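Format notes (please read before filing issues)

Several people have asked whether sequences and structure tokens are stored in separate files. They are not. Every record keeps both together, in the order shown below: the sequence lines, then the token lines. Line labels are part of the format and must not be stripped during preprocessing.
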Amino acid sequence: MDINQSLIGDLISEGKTKQVYHLKNDGTFGTNDSLVYVKNKDNISAGDNSRNRRIMLGKGRITCETSSAIFGYLNAVGLDTAFIARDRNCDNGFVAKHCQMIPIELVIRRIAMGTYLKLNPDVSEGYRFLTPLVEIHIKDDANHDPLWSVDRLVGEQFVINGLSVDRDVIDRILKLAKLVYEILERVWHTIDYQLVDLKVEFGVVDNSIGDTKPRLVLADIIDNETWRLWPSGDKKQMVDKQIYREYSEGQVDDQVIDYVRTVFQNVSDLTQQLFSLEKKSKKCLKYLPKESIIILTADESHTTSSEDNHCLAQNLSKYLHNEYNISGITVQKIGDHCWQQLVDKLSQSYCQLIVTIGCIDNDNYSSKIATSVAIPVIDYCYDVNHNSLLDPKLLDKNLVNQIIKIMAINDQFIWSKIKLRQCFDSTLDDN
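Then the structure lines:
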């Protein structure tokens, strides 16, 4: 998105890593919310900003690249975040909803490291939690962001932009923090990187415009300073800010800064590839080239409902593409005359799933496919008199759920959307 610089107003706040400005909402941002413009700075430091405070040229741009890719992906999945868009006119700036931040940090851990070990000396470094552990830390640099319990946080009775941070809100925050971690962990696993832990923050959207209720959103930044990331799960190969924290005061010189910048840039490049919604650009992943799903309907020689079946198949294809970003869906009518062509096509494709619609299996096509090519098959029959089934909005949820569960095995975006639904809606069985 190209941001008109004349829309950027006064400075609201400035921290060690970013500046936040008012931004006039001229109606082009797709939201009625109050907006801010965030500029990421080139500062880098260690230990609550107390050690090795340096300027690393390009860091603001790298942070913006990394965080924009992560938040763009989470927005597409359906998570409510403050992020709106990166500014193409400024390499270190992005637009976000104006939030009042809840003064806590959530640290989600898969592997015991860092402050957890100091607080739990009986736990060995590298201990792996079966379920990610979520910690609440109050933001207090002077006291090194101490750990708080849920009860203590409830007792503070914070009210943020009209939202009471009560036990229900805290429970939602904890669930969201864990969900964000699990989604990012899943994507990084596709290239054998272990997301060791992650820090996230939440805010409440300013609801001064209109009559909307206060909204809890994931906010701030997610980048190479807010996680630990180990290729092949090997601490010795770490590619996160910990490599900078390892240097003692006075050890950092220009050569170290150049090295850290290179590592950060490499992680940013990977992040943009992994979390891009343009699957063609995901060269490092085994995503779904060519056909991903083939939907088969019987031709006119087999059923009088051929056109209805084909219409349903087309609507299903559009829905799966629009809702789950599934590309490469082929809809094809099938009859005896083209059976061998279909088998030849399947044997040369990367198809993940076959869906047959309209009792096509009366001709044993499903069993023929199963014996010819190792591809899952879903047979779907329905009463063609129910014309409502031809409306994309009224597609059979059971059919859609079956399809997306199978596709989620190899597609992290679909898996992420399912995980979000499971977290709050419970409309899908847990996998």
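For reference, the curators noted about this record: The chain has eleven helices and 20 strands. The first strand starts at residue 8 and ends at 14.
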